Write the structure tokens for this entry.
Amino acid sequence: MWNKLFISPLAAVLLCSMSLSSFASDEMIIKIGHVAPISGPISHLGKDNENGAKMAIEELNAQGIVINGKKAKFVLIAEDDAADPKQGTAIAQKLVDAKVNAVAGHMNSGTSIPTSKIYFDAGIPQIATSTSTEYNAKGYKSTFRVVADDGQLGGMLGRYAVENLHAKTVAVIDDRTAYGQGLADQFIKEINKEIKRKAPSVKITQRHFTTDKSTDFNGILTAIKASKPDVIFYGGNDAVAGSMLRQMKTLGIHARLMGGDGVCTEKLATLAGDALKEGQVVCAEAGGVTNTEKKAFDEFFIAYQKRFGIPVQIYAPYVYDSVMLFASAMQQAKSSDPAVYLPFLQKIHHKGITGNIAFDSKGNVKEGTITLYTYKAGKRTSFASVRG
């Protein structure tokens, strides 16, 4: 009699398959989509956002997150929308077809606005770093943002121009994107409020338009120079603002340049070169932290530099928190199914590295912080943070 049990090759294959299947069933694959411009003139900003998502994914997997008794494996599906609405909508449909569990993005308002309906129709929660007030204006319950909006951003910059910089003449330029034009509109709206309230002598002398890929502003700047502006407000991103500062220097325009978060990056100093004078630029980021939250925020910047060998540009911490918000809602719901965890995301209270995060009924972050910056010795330097 044989003392060893004989197992046929077929039985061995079946047993092996059952074992592997059992192991696989104990692991939950969670796909997180991330979309930003990884090509084009603002690719450094898109890559910054993507890196924030990568850090969150790596940390979640290192923690060994368990959801409803199963170990979760988070997978990042990173895509490039090139800041182009048409490409953005195609990417959004691609992520829907891939059955992602969540989307961190898009970065630009011009891509976040049209893609929000695609994600809403598919029932996939989306957390963007876009600031346009139109982004969540249609009331999609799957649409969230983790930064302040253009109403807050443009409002603060408009007030600061009048009350702190004591500007009497203001010129405005925007790049005609949903973000740039929307921010410029909000800035002008606030300036007009200041004029009616207490500063009747302030004048918006000119309004001009360019594109987000332009490099020649001599015609616009020559026209503006004649009105001797104290402030030129630019609604757009740093790639254009850097070139604009260089041409302002060439033309002998000494006005301050103001802008929003797209201008307010670490790379602006490199893009502008010696045309960036001390304190010449005043810009605002739709984010930032108060003193009580600064430790965790600063630690992220150190960890980011160590991981990627470059400094944070602007919104990597917010994308990191976005991914962590998805994971937290899934843990609370005990499910990665968007339909199940979405209600938990809507009511979430999460302590992130960018502060305590909760959303209002429209998906806006409550009490969003705005931070004002200038540039000293070629370095972006914050000088005020206000929580809304």
